[in-house]
Amino acid sequence: MSQWVDKFNSHQVHRTLEQLEVLLNDFDDDVLTKEPAAVDLVERIKQVTNFTKSRLNNADPNLVPHNNLNNLNASFSSVSAEVSAFKSNRNIGHLSNAISHIDNVLVYLSNIPVPLGSGDMEGLRDAVTSYRRSAGQYIRNIDDEYKSLNKKFQEITANLTQLTSEISSQKQRIDNVISNFQDQFSNAEERRRAEFQAAEKERKEKADSLYTDIENKLDELIEGKDTSYSAKIEEIKAAFDKLSVDVKSNSDALFEDIKSTSASSLDEFNGNITAALKNFNSTSTKAVNTFTSEANSAMADILENKERAEKLVGIITDTGMVGGYQRVANSEGKAAILWRVIATLCFAGLIVFAIYAYTSAFNHEVKWGEFAARIFVATSFGILAAYAALQADKHEKAERKNRKIELELASISPYLHSLPVEQQHKIKAELASRLFGNNESIEEKVDKKTTGSIIDVLKLALESIQNLSKK
């Protein structure tokens, strides 16, 4: 056997190709599915590897330079290192580096002379078959994943529709609850006011009646005692007249009897008066205490309901204000988009017309009438584009301002919830002064004045284009 054949058969490039082939066959389908961009790169590496093996198998060892085999071995060693690195960290950059080495392999293979025959076609056929097999597997995996994602999308869409319906239903229920609460609160407030007035009137009537009864009883008691006392006086006078005849006989005893009887009657009268006054004071005190307690309780309920009503009115007011600014911001945003589209279409039309005018200038002789018409059409496009750009900029500024006010009003209540009441009022006053006392115009003042000439219009169009490009 020739020494050239021995060197060719024992060269390291054959073992390097076998190791690379084993490494490529160990690729998991899940890895290629998760990295779609890696499929074409891996298949090209496989195809070049198989082509190299086929080229070396069909080559004449006596015609192959040894340096070419060394270059092939170095390139395939680099390819193996990059493929191993990709399998470790899934970095697609390693496969890109491997493709660079594969390109070098193709250059080296072109320097290896081989007879053309059916072997080359067989290697190419195997490479195409392998690529089709991998592509089919990849397509099946993509189809399964698409079906799974489509099913999940339909479920999410159904859930979203159901959730939207539930949100609308809950919103309607909340609106009904708020309306019912307002009606109930108004009715309850009227009922409590009527009950309080009726109770106050009833208590006043009871107190007046009790006071009148006590006065009547006291008058009756006094009149009864006066009558009893007058009778006793008459009796004493009669006894005194009777006893005056016999001054010496029973004067002392009669005097003591009169004295004892008068003192006893007077003590009884004083005791009745004192008991009546005590009873009156006790009854009046109880009535006043009961009235005061019920009045304080009713007043506390009224103050509590008033505070709740103020909070509810504040929430409704904030929601209404935020909704107003939100509607204005949405309207301005739509108007800005519309004018921006008009400006873009005008600029596109101007560009198309410019291209048409440029191409037609070489095919026909220049005529001043046509030239003036083209200038007029281009100027019309430019003026409309500039005006549309200015309108888009103005509406966009108005949208940003109203959107900012909307966000501030929507977030002010949660922000102030944990702060003291005095500080809340102070911050709200500052916010109201800044929002409602500000006469700042939405449109910015334009320093430069335009005269309506074509040059000014073009400058204005260029400035509008620059403003739109910055956004």
Q: How many DSSP helices? A: 11
Any idea how many domains? 3
> In one word, what is the shape?
elongated
Q: What low-confidence regions span 5 or more consecutive residues with pLDDT below 50?
A: 441-454
* Multimeric organization: single chain
Report the biggest beta sheet as strand number plus sense, adding barrel if it closes: none
- Report the helical percentage: over 70%
Number of strands: 0
Question: Distance between termini?
Answer: 77 Å
Strand residue content: under 5%
The helix-and-strand class reads mainly alpha
Calculate the mean pLDDT score and round it.
74
Secondary-structure element series: HHHHHHHHHHH
Q: Whole-number radius of gyration?
A: 55 Å
Task: Please give a structural write-up.
- The protein has 471 residues and is mostly helical.
- It folds into 3 domains: 3-115; 179-311; 313-470.
- It is built from 11 helices and no strands.
- It has helices at 3-9, 12-25, 29-34, 37-58, 66-89, 92-109, 118-245, 247-363, 368-416, 421-436, 454-470.
- The protein is elongated and about 190 Å long.
- The two termini are 77 Å apart.
- Residues 441-454 have low confidence and may be disordered.
